[in-house]
Amino acid sequence: MHKHIAIIGAGISGLTTIKQCLDNDLIPICFEQNSSVGGVWQSEEPHSPVYKSVLTNTSKEMSTFSDFPIPADWPTYLNHSQIEKYIDMYAENFNLLPHIKFNTTVLKVSILPDKRWKVKYIIQCEREEKEEIFDFVIVCSGLIRKPRWPEYKGMNLFKGEQMHSHKYKRAVDFKNKRVLVVGCGSSALDIAVELTHAASQVYLSVRKGKLPWITPRFINDKVLDHTSRFSAHMIPPSIRGRRLENNIMKSFPYPSHLKPTDPLIASYPIVNFEIFQCLTAGKVIVKPNIKELKSENKQIEFVDGTVLEDIDVVIYSTGYNIDNSFLEEHIFTGGCEVEQEFGKDFYRLNWLYKLLFPPKYPNIAFIGFTVGAGAIWPVSEMQARYVISHIKGFIKPLPSQSEMEKSIRNSYESIRKKYCRSARNALRINYVLYMETLSKEIGCYPYFYEIIKKFGFRFWKLIMFGTFTPIHYRLLGRNSWDGAREAITLYNQDNFKPITNEKSINS
Ligand SMILES: Cc1cc2nc3c(=O)[nH]c(=O)nc-3n(C[C@H](O)[C@H](O)[C@H](O)COP(=O)(O)OP(=O)(O)OC[C@H]3O[C@@H](n4cnc5c(N)ncnc54)[C@H](O)[C@@H]3O)c2cc1C
Hints:
It is a single-pass membrane protein. The chain is an alpha/beta fold. Helix content is 32%, strand content 16%. The chain folds into three domains: 4-145 and 322-442, FAD/NAD(P)-binding domain; 149-318, FAD/NAD(P)-binding domain (3-Layer(bba) Sandwich); 446-494, no CATH class. The chain is globular.
């Protein structure tokens, strides 16, 4: 029987989910509150957290969709307009737009007695709320939704400007101002560096009083996130982490009092290069956590007793919370019991089998709710392939509710032991190993024997020891792609080729 499927969100995750539906003769309806596709990357949308100077921190070889390679002659790391262009090319090439209801906000998704879902939505130009019934709902609403604000004494009294980093777009808006950036994630460091070109002084407040692990995009002549399937399987993450730590320490002038104390593997490295130059030149000055914002002289006091005066703007780059407010919490969280067992950080997170299915409701799935030291896009694509294979009955049915609960508990236990306690880390995956696991169940894993039989030994060596790329999962099985072999070969040619054909990326 034809299944009626709703997809919520037309960012990267929603787009690839539509594509995987169409590949398998399912016609979904995708609800998107914005007027265009791309989610966070759509800088014209009012809530986009992306600033114009952003550069991906995952390489094109690792970030590409598996059957629509980012052109090989584009740079290793994409800038903002290249990302937008790639997303538009993907949507256009696979004719995804007709399946999207734009300017349509999903207000509520509720379960019916017959276990189907009622989706209540509103089209922005019409006042009237509408409802539709679906057999399956796929939530692709994104991790970066509700700006997270810290709480400091005196925030309400401070006379300078205070803003969240999602409102930050360009440095020139801060010309000759004294700016304090709060946070030490990718956006905080990017913004601090960029501000040095316009602001009169930039300060960076880091909660723990230490810098995070910071790495450039290329290290020891290698693209940072490039790995081979062999290394990903054979070299334990702890050893890879220690290697990277050593390389970072050898290459960068970490002021000794700001060196990170946690091992790299317990958190994740921030990709940035220029920050060290700014630190050594005093253009960015690191401060510890804020103690209090004061009403007089735009003063800010820090936990070490130091005080800054005349701070014109405070930019809180303190992250985002998931906002699935259109769903009742019990659908995707573990409830009070889990809160008691794992603590608050974990409670707010999705209690999902394989980070996809809530054990109580196997006809709703969540795509794109992962973080890791790897690109999100191909992970969302693989998740979508897995979910569609589940809907179509191509893979074995999900285990019982109690088995799924047990599996989630085990994976959270192991994350808790390995990594720092943070909301982000609870959604953490090992990029390659997670992809490998799902691909084996779907039937698109590049098994040794089958690759040699179909493509020969030399090509197998490329799959094993060459640069890993998600295109590997299009060589075999359902929805394989004839162009995969050639694309993999191209991606394994000189990765450091300078861009010579300006037209190919700007046209
Ligand atoms: C500055 C920055 C740099 C980044 N760099 C990288 C990188 O280098 N590599 C990488 O892999 N990732 C990076 N990311 C992460 C990025 O979030 C992912 O790459 C990816 O774009 C997430 O896509 P998504 O579709 O899951 O979510 P989103 O892009 O957030 O899309 C969700 C969509 O759902 C829609 N939506 C939400 N709620 C509703 C509702 N109720 N009704 C209707 N529509 C709704 C939203 O409007 C949005 O369009 C970066 C993020 C930022 C902010």
